[in-house]
Structure formats: C-alpha cells, structure tokens
Amino acid sequence: MNDASAAAEAGTGARVSLGTIFWTFLTAGAISFGGGVVAYLREFTVSDTKWLDDEGFLDALEISQTLPGLNAVNMSVIIGDNLRGIPGAIVAVAGLVLPGVVVIMGLGAFWQEQSHNPQVKAFLIGVAAAAVGLLSTVTLQLGHKQFVKPLDLAIIAATFVAVSILRIPLYIVLVVIGSAAVLLYRPGAKHKLLEERARHLRERLLHRRYISLRH
C-alpha cells in the first residue's frame, strides 16, 4: 500500500494535498448511498486520481473487511494514511462522513413524519437496489481475475456457503477460511500445479465444445 503514495506523487509531481484528499472523499461521501460508497471510492481513487491500482484497492478492501467498523471508513483511514500519514487519514475520514452526518441530521425530523409514506419507502428500496448494483459492479471489476482460478473460486464458494447458507458467524469464517487461504497461498505452496491442471482441463473442454459446434 506504500505504492499508493508513490504513485500519487509520481502522477502529480508533489505530495497530494490534504485539501485534495478531503475534497475527494467528501465528494464520494456526498454522492453515494449505503454500501455503494465503496464503488465511488474505487472510481475516485483508482480511475480518477490514480492514487491506487486495482490490486492496491483490493488490498485495502480486504484489510477493511477484517477490521471492526464500516468498510468505507476503514478504507479512508488506510488510503489517507498512505497518502499523507495521520493528517491524511483524519481528513479522509472527515470528508467521507461529513455529508452523511449533515444529511442524517437534516432529514431526521422529516423521517419522523414521513416514515409511513409509501413513496418514501419506495424511494429507499430504489436506493438500496442501486447500492447493490454498484457493489456488484465493483466486485466484478476487482474480482474478475479471481473468478477464473479454481482455488480462488473454491475459497469464494466456501465463504458464501458458510456465511449466506449455513449462517456461521463471520469471525469464525474469517478465522477458519482466512487461515486456510493464507496456508494455501503461503510462499512455496504447490497450488499452482492444481491451477495449471484446471486450466488445461478448461481448455480441453472448450476445444471439444468448439469441435462439436463445428460439426
């Protein structure tokens, strides 16, 4: 993650200013809804400012998900700290949460009066659907490399089954599956042979399908 700061300095010729960090995270916090903020953070920190690449952003997201608290706030701390140290982390978090605090305080009284309004409920359902769509987009953009590797797919599937179907507490899933993943990907692990065999098998199946379609 230290490469994030180096990339930012290389792209701008100087350290990223605290004002730029604050404004970037303020914008992300102001235009996003719910979990969709992660999608906007990727848009601003990877696509626009080039502070991170996809690998660096995924690293920050992975760390954030294993820590207590909101993922977006944790990511703000990580990215801000790597850009400008502790002051960068502070202004990043402040910029991200400020719009939400203002909006929540402003709409609190309105919600008290309109909470049973069907139009308000319909609006919130639409916002939730949009947030899910944004998160799905980020998942596909960041995880497309993992979706073609058998070992990664097995870890993803095991995590999904454990959390969504078996309802196993998240901390247990992190300890068990996370430890297994670290063991499998440790330096010198021989999982590459499995992936190579799976790749050859996939190519053979695709070739057979192509031959059958031609005939």
Q: How would you sum up this structure, described in words?
A:
There is one protein chain. Mean pLDDT is 78; it is low at 1-13. It is globular, with a radius of gyration of 21 Å. It folds into two domains: 1-142, no CATH class; 145-215, no CATH class. The longest helix has 44 residues, at 71-114. It is mostly helical. Helices cover 81% and strands 0% of the residues.
| Secondary-structure element pattern, one letter each | HHHHHHHHH
Query: What percentage of amino acids are in beta strands?
Result: under 5%
What general outline do the C-alpha atoms trace?
Answer: globular
Mean pLDDT score, rounded? Answer: 78
Question: How many strands appear in the DSSP assignment?
Answer: 0
Number of helical segments with 4 or more residues:
9
Q: Give the tally of structural domains.
A: 2
Distance between the termini: 52 Å
Largest sheet: none
Oligomer: single chain
Helix content: over 70%
What integer value in Å does the Rg equal? 21 Å
List segments where confidence is low: pLDDT < 50 over at least 5 consecutive residues.
1-13
Quickly give the structural class: mainly alpha
Summary keywords:
215 residues, 2 domains, disordered N terminus
Short description:
It contains nine helices and no strands. It is mostly helical.
Secondary structure layout plus pairing:
Layout: H1 2-12, H2 18-31, H3 37-48, H4 54-65, H5 71-114, H6 118-143, H7 150-165, H8 170-184, H9 191-214
Helix pairs in contact: 1-5, 2-3, 2-5, 3-6, 4-5, 7-8
